[in-house]
Amino acid sequence: MIPVASFFIVRLPLVSRASRTVNVAMADTMRYTPDSIAVKRGETVRFVVRNVGKVEHEMVIGTAGELKEHAQMMRSMPAEKHAAGPNQVTLAPGQQGVLVWKFDGPGTVDFACLVPGHFEAGMVGKVVVK
């Protein structure tokens, strides 16, 4: 059972425009389920993200380059926490949060956990925009 705490890291007008919901679980195996998600160009998706593990995890959306650069920065400052942003949700064990994103262009958008060591352990996923 998920505790009551939930976080909504989105602009409220965007939430009302979400055309569908995708549930994403983050686990201590350093994996997302699912780790590959197909969306349509122009689609606004509500991600309901659950941390089913016993350590903090996050879902950060960005390009592969942005995520690698940010992961490197997080490794160099392990005590620092992310500032809340529209492209990420950071969750303590057992928490659930919502991240809403509009996918404007075709191609691949990446997501990853940038908690130090998690990205390097393979905690990454892809959104394929068609």
Break the fold down into its secondary structure elements and pairings.
Blueprint: E1 6-8, H1 12-16, E2 20-27, E3 31-33, E4 36-39, E5 44-51, E6 57-62, H2 64-76, E7 88-91, E8 96-102, E9 107-112, E10 124-129
Parallel strand pairs: 1-8, 2-5, 4-10
Antiparallel strand pairs: 2-3, 5-8, 6-7, 6-9, 9-10
Keywords:
130 residues; mainly beta; 5-stranded mixed β-sheet; 2 helices; 10 strands; disordered N terminus
Structural write-up:
Mean pLDDT is 85; it is low at 1-12. The protein contains 2 helices and 10 strands; from the N terminus they run βαβββββαββββ. The chain has helices spanning 12-16, 64-76; strands at 6-8, 20-27, 31-33, 36-39, 44-51, 57-62, 88-91, 96-102, 107-112, 124-129. The protein is globular. It is mainly beta.
Secondary structure class reads mainly beta
Number of strands: 10
Instruction: Enumerate how many helices there are, as a single number.
Output: 2
Cα distance spanning the termini: 35 Å
N to C succession of SSEs: EHEEEEEHEEEE
Shape annotation: globular
Cα-atom Rg, whole angstroms? 14 Å
Mean pLDDT: 85
Extract low-pLDDT stretches.
1-12
β-strand amount: 35-45%
Portion of residues within helices: 10-25%
| Largest beta-sheet details | 5 strands, mixed
User: What is the topology, as strand order, of the major beta sheet?
Assistant: 1-8-5-2-3
